[in-house]
């Protein structure tokens, strides 16, 4: 990550926002470094798009403040913020050509015609659409339209680039291509990017940092691997992928699996009472003939459903403790519903989470 | 990308009130429309001075007013029924047609709007009178020997007004059909309903709102019609609008005119309020 | 099974074609006959309207164009229609956009209020304006224009609203984020997108003024008469084919306007 010379930081301090009686953001704090690529991930209605609207200036917070490089933005109209926004889809002006769309922000800034033409050309080649300037948006495919929207949002060197599920309307393959392009663009321009998505893979693969939203609050933030491997809550664990978790009881420094009467030493978790031990589905293996070792917990389970997923086979299993989870098996494994298996769970790889009833 | 031109950093918000766009119109409507309409209606209690409810009393007990009121309602009901049925059929045919034919049908439905209401009513007199086209055709084809009197009858008024108001039935019905999700009909067929059952139990209930909206408009507009009944109707077809006109132009009785205007306007607004849900669903949804 | 059901459908569609034409023919005749009948009548040779038209002559048109009264009334109609359309657009477009795209309380109420001039009987409106406009200082042209703005503006508002509803609000946000203020956003984004709706509203407003007789009857004076008012006087007194000639001109003008609107729409697409 290299911050471009015009990249700026964004800070949200104690932001509250509600629409009518519905609280959308509840005392939110968030910081984005200059040049950082931060993804905001969460289910719809979790408040991530509201954050984006507050930063863009489409809305003002009820309380708290939005700071751009330390300067308070409250009350400043969107057109005076110099922030680029890429929307989910259909945000190109239908009555303007591609070139006219891209030069729109420059015209609004009084840039001379010659400079505009040069900047449009550069922006078009940045998104690999050289020669498309005279087309109308309706003559472009969905992916091309989004490329134009991105070119339009960066052509005026915005302080921050906001992207609101920019690939949400595209099919899977195209989405992959454009993810890479956006990442490259970020590296080339060094612009600060806040990227809203509900696609966990997209968030994990693209960002420097992931912020997971739930019910108007930040549930967890951190580097993609950190958030994926060490989810702080069951909500984050569920939202970011498949896993298997079993209930346990924590007291002091020890965690006990009641059903198995097994005590698992673990320290520094700071949790008391009911907890869950969680493994990502790729961290669960099937117990083989060789000795499991003392940090491996073996647990009988029943296969409930089997779903073939190309590179792997995904199975929903029910453990002898009655917990249900999803594990991965080799692509060529031939299990069927009802098969009895034995799981090998590596205690050193387990995440320890509060057993929050709210999130289950 | 070397151009770094920042927008002028103004710290004060340039936010105009969202309702700004309607204020000039509301002001104009208030002075140029509401003031005249309200004046006429208030004349019912102010002309002559201290009239109180006497104008309403005399109008409502006047047998002439009763006859004209019955004429008005009868015509409005007939026209509404004719327009509801013909408009729905026309819209349905439009809905089922190929795009080319549909464009022609839309054009045919809009064409009458190019001709002034006055001209169309006048044209009907040429078509329907004893020496008119219909009688000429019927006599020349040997169907009848003597011309049939059609002009100055309720028939002429109904046909003349239905022709003028038909577009108000066709377009709302068509709008509701165009919004109808065609896969529902296939779903209904796959669930065992035949074409007629599917139409009656799926299509019609879903598109009824357009028919209702159109009929409300036609009925409400019929209540105030003036030109067509005068030109095409007989003495037994003259509506309240004619009576109001007479109060003002020949009797100079502004009090009675005000009371009659108040009564008609009240019913127009009442029926519009009753049908407003359907109308707003078609036109503003 | 499949072939039999297919043939049943075919048979049904054959019947449907027959039923359709049986139903549609009378409706189409009712819709179109009055508009189409006037033009042949206007070319008759005899000084009264009869069917079938006798001979062919343009003398009623000649008479029309020789009559300063008729020419003045046509000019007045055009003047009133153009002015009232322009004002209706200026008042109605911002209102329609605000109603369709902005959030504020009481919209349904305001909307119902804007629509009332369309439904309150014209006779009531006409006598009210007759009484009040003179007092407001609105006579002849100014009075007629004001009155026709009132009946034209609801049409502009309705068509503008339905066009503006098609505008994706995201476009307006995009424009703001790209540096356009509310005013530039309106002129550079909203207005170009809704232009065809505005245009058809303007055509409807124009035609409604061009046609209007009941209100105009009360507001015009012997020195300032519109064509429909003059026609109304002629029709109720004595009918000669000059009226048919005027009607044909009014019809052709409105028809050309509507066809050019439709062609314009096609070209835009």
From TrEMBL, chain A:
Organism per entry: Flavimaribacter sediminis
Classification lineage: Bacteria, Pseudomonadati, Pseudomonadota, Alphaproteobacteria, Hyphomicrobiales
GO cellular component: ATP-binding cassette (ABC) transporter complex
Protein name: ABC transporter ATP-binding protein
Keyword set, alphabetical order: ATP-binding, Nucleotide-binding, Transport
Matching InterPro entries: AAA+_ATPase, ABC_SmlMolc_Importer, ABC_transporter-like_ATP-bd, ABC_transporter-like_CS, Mo/tungstate-bd_C_term_dom, P-loop_NTPase, Transp-assoc_OB_typ2
Keyword Transmembrane helix: no
Pfam families: ABC_tran, TOBE_2
GO molecular function: ATP binding; ATP hydrolysis activity; transmembrane transporter activity
BP terms from Gene Ontology: quaternary ammonium group transport
Gene3D superfamilies per the UniProt record, alphabetical: P-loop containing nucleotide triphosphate hydrolases (3.40.50.300)
Stretches assigned to the ABC transporter domain: 10-240
PROSITE patterns: ABC_TRANSPORTER_1 (PS00211), ABC_TRANSPORTER_2 (PS50893)
Similarity comment: Belongs to the ABC transporter superfamily.
Cell cycle found in the keyword field: no
TrEMBL record, chain B:
Residue ranges occupied by any ABC transmembrane type-1 domain in the UniProt entry: 69-275
Subcellular location: Cell membrane
One GO-annotated biological process of the protein: transmembrane transport
GO cellular component: plasma membrane
CDD domains listed in its UniProt record: TM_PBP2
Membrane topology: Multi-pass membrane protein
Chief place of localization: membrane
Superkingdom assignment: Bacteria
Parts of the chain that traverse the membrane: 20-45, 65-91, 103-127, 155-177, 198-227, 254-276
UniProt family annotation: Belongs to the binding-protein-dependent transport system permease family. CysTW subfamily.
The protein, known as: ABC transporter permease
Protein species of origin: Flavimaribacter sediminis
Automatic annotation (TrEMBL), chain C:
Keywords: Cell inner membrane, Cell membrane, Membrane, Transmembrane, Transmembrane helix, Transport
UniProt topology in membrane: Multi-pass membrane protein
Transmembrane segments: 21-43, 74-97, 109-133, 145-164, 185-207, 242-264
Source organism superkingdom: Bacteria
GO BP annotation list: transmembrane transport
CDD domains: TM_PBP2 (cd06261)
Primary localization: membrane
Domain ABC transmembrane type-1: 74-261
GO CC terms in record: plasma membrane
Location of this chain's protein in the cell: Cell inner membrane; Cell membrane
Pfam families, per database record: BPD_transp_1
PANTHER family: INNER MEMBRANE ABC TRANSPORTER PERMEASE PROTEIN YDCV (PTHR43357)
Family classification: Belongs to the binding-protein-dependent transport system permease family.
Name this polypeptide is given: ABC transporter permease
Species annotation: Flavimaribacter sediminis
């Amino acid at each position: 990550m290299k911050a471009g010379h015009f990249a700026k930081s964004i800070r949200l301090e104690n932001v509250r926002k509600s629409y009518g009686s519905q609280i959308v953001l509840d005392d939110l704090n968030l910081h984005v470094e200059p040049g950082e690529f931060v993804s905001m991930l969460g289910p719809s209605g979790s408040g991530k798009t509201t954050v984006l609207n507050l930063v863009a200036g489409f809305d003002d917070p009820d309380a708290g403040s939005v700071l751009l490089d330390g300067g308070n933005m409250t009350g400043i109209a969107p057109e005076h913020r110099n922030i680029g926004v890429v929307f989910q889809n259909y945000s190109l002006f239908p009555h303007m050509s591609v070139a006219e769309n891209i030069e729109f922000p420059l015209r609004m800034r009084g840039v001379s015609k010659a400079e505009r033409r040069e900047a449009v050309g550069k922006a078009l080649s940045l998104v690999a659409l050289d020669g498309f300037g005279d087309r109308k948006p309706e003559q472009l495919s969905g992916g091309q339209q989004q490329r134009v929207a991105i070119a339009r949002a960066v052509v005026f060197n915005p302080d921050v680039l906001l992207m609101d599920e920019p690939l949400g309307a595209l099919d899977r393959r195209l989405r992959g291509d454009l993810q890479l392009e956006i990442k490259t663009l970020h590296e080339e321009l060094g612009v600060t990017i806040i990227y809203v998505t509900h696609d966990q893979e997209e968030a994990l693969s693209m960002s420097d940092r992931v912020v997971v939203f739930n019910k108007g609050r930040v549930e967890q933030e951190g580097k993609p691997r950190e958030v994926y491997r060490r989810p702080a809550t069951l909500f984050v664990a569920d939202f970011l992928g498949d896993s298997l978790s079993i209930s346990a009881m924590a007291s002091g420094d020890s965690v006990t699996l009641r059903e198995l009467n097994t005590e698992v030493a673990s320290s520094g978790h700071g949790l008391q009472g009911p907890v869950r031990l969680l493994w990502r589905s790729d961290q669960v293996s099937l117990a083989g003939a060789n000795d499991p070792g003392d940090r491996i917990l073996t647990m009988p389970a029943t296969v409930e459903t089997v779903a073939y997923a190309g590179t792997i086979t995904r199975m929903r299993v029910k453990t002898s403790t009655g917990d249900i989870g999803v594990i991965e098996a080799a692509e060529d494994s031939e299990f069927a519903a009802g098969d009895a298996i034995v799981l090998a769970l590596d205690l050193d790889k387990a995440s320890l989470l509060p057993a929050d009833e709210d999130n289950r | 990308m070397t151009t770094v031109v920042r927008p002028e950093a103004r710290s004060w918000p340039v936010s105009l009130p969202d309702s700004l766009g309607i204020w000039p119109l509301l002001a104009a409507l208030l002075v140029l429309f509401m003031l005249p309409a309200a004046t006429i209606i208030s004349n019912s209690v102010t002309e002559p001075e201290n009239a109180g409810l006497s104008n309403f009393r005399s109008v409502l007990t006047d047998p002439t007013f009763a006859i004209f009121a019955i004429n008005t309602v009868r015509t409005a009901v007939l026209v509404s029924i004719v327009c509801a049925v013909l408009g729905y059929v026309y819209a349905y045919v439009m809905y089922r047609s190929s795009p080319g034919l549909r464009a022609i049908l839309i054009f045919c439905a809009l064409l009458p709007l190019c001709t002034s209401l006055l001209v169309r009513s006048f044209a009907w007199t040429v078509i329907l009178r004893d020496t008119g086209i219909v009688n000429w055709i019927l006599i020349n084809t040997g169907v009848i020997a003597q011309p049939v009197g059609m002009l100055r009858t309720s028939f002429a008024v109904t046909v003349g007004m239905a022709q003028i108001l038909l577009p108000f039935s066709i377009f709302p019905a068509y709008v509701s059909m165009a919004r109808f999700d065609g896969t529902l009909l296939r779903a209904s067929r796959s669930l065992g309903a035949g074409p007629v059952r599917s139409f009656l139990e799926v299509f019609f209930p879903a598109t009824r709102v357009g028919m209702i909206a159109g009929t409300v408009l036609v009925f409400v507009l019929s209540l105030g019609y003036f030109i067509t009944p005068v030109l095409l109707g007989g003495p037994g077809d003259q509506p309240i609008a004619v009576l109001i006109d007479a109060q003002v132009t020949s009797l100079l009785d502004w009090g009675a005119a005000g009371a009659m205007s108040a009564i008609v306007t009240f019913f127009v607004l009442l029926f519009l309020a009753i049908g407003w849900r359907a109308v707003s669903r078609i036109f503003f949804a | 099974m499949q072939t039999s059901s297919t043939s049943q459908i075919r048979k049904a569609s054959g019947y449907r074609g027959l039923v359709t034409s049986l139903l549609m023919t009378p409706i189409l005749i009712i819709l179109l006959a009055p508009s189409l009948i006037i033009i042949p009548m206007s070319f008759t040779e005899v000084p009264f309207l009869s069917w079938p038209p006798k001979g062919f002559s343009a003398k009623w048109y000649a008479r029309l164009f020789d009559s300063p009264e008729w020419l003045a009334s046509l000019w007045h109609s055009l003047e009133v229609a153009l002015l009232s359309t322009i004002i209706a657009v200026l008042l109605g477009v911002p209102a329609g956009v605000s109603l369709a795209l902005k959030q504020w309380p009481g919209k349904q109420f305001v909307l119902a209020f804007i629509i009332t001039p369309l439904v309150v009987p014209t006779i009531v409106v006409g006598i009210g304006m007759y009484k009040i406009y003179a007092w407001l200082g609105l006579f002849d042209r100014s009075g007629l224009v004001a009155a026709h703005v009132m009946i034209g503006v609801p049409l502009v508002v309705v068509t503008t609203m339905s066009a503006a509803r098609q505008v994706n609000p995201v476009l307006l946000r995009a424009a703001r984020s790209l540096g356009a203020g509310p005013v530039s956003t309106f002129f550079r984004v909203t207005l170009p997108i809704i232009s065809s709706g505005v245009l058809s509203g303007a055509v409807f407003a124009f035609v409604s003024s061009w046609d209007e007789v009941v209100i105009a009857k009360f507001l015009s004076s012997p020195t300032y008469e519109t064509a429909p008012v003059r026609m109304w006087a002629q029709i109720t007194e004595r009918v000669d084919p000059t009226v048919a000639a005027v009607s044909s001109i009014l019809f052709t003008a409105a028809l050309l306007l509507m066809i050019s609107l439709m062609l314009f729409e096609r070209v835009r697409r």
